[in-house]
Structures are given as C-alpha cells and as structure tokens.
Amino acid sequence: MHGAIAVAATLTTVFGAPPTVEEDPGSSGEPPSTVHRWDGFELREPRYGGVAADMAPSLSLPNFRVVFTTAASGDVELTTTSGRVVGESWSDFAASPDAAKNGLCVERYGEVVVLPMTCSDGTVEDARNSIEFQPSDDETVIASVEARRVRIAPGTRPGHIG
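Above: the chain's sequence. Below: its structure in token form.
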C-alpha cells in the first residue's frame, strides 16, 4: 500500500470503522478528490490533471490532505502539533503567534512553514505549507483545521501549480 490508501487503512484502524467514501468533482481552486470521511475527520486524495498528473507527489503536490471539524472523532483527539483544536476561541487563536496570515489568494490563517520547491522548469521557489484554521461564520471559534495546504509565494508565474 502507498500514499492515501495506506493512510486510509491506518485511519480505519485508529477510528475503529471504515470511512464513507465519495468523489468531490473539485472547483477552480481545488482538484477533484476522493474523500474518505469518518466522524468529524476527512482524508482528501486529490487527482491532479494536466502536467501535474504525471508528476510524483511532492511539497507542491501532496498525495493527501486531512481536514477536521470536531475536537475528537470517537475516542481520538484531533489536535494540531501546537495543540489547537476545533471549537477553541477564534479571538484567542487569532491573537497567538500560530495565527499567521499567509497573505495569498484568500487570506487564511495557519501555522505556516516556508520550504523550497523545485518547479518543473528547474527553478526553485518558496512554497508555503500550512495548517490552516477557518473561523466559524460568526468568527467566535475555530470551525475547521486543514493540513497540508500548499501555496506558491506571491509573484510566482501563472500556470505554476500551487
């Protein structure tokens, strides 16, 4: 087993039940994906098109992402490495050093790590990898946590994958 298939098998053991599986057709900002869902947790397996379809998984093309919308799924606590959880006060989170605006496309908050990424033409650019936090509609609590999101640095050439 490899990639998202191995992760889904491991999560089935961790959560004690198989996921529901559905296809997400994608959008202008998201590739189509197979979505494996457990209570409050999902594993997204993107299917990249175009030139990206032939590329190996990398920093800019992760082979899976996770999203959680609850603080726990069954007996499993869902937290970030910094201990953040869904349902935590948004204002407390927004005032913390973890709340870095990544400043790209749509402003999202996240624990951002900048890593070098080699593009298909051999150039090296900064890829911002983040754990992203989205507020509830009324901005009182963290509504969801998603990792890993990859965004290309501002000013990158159009057509690069990010």
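The two ends are 26 Å apart (CA to CA).
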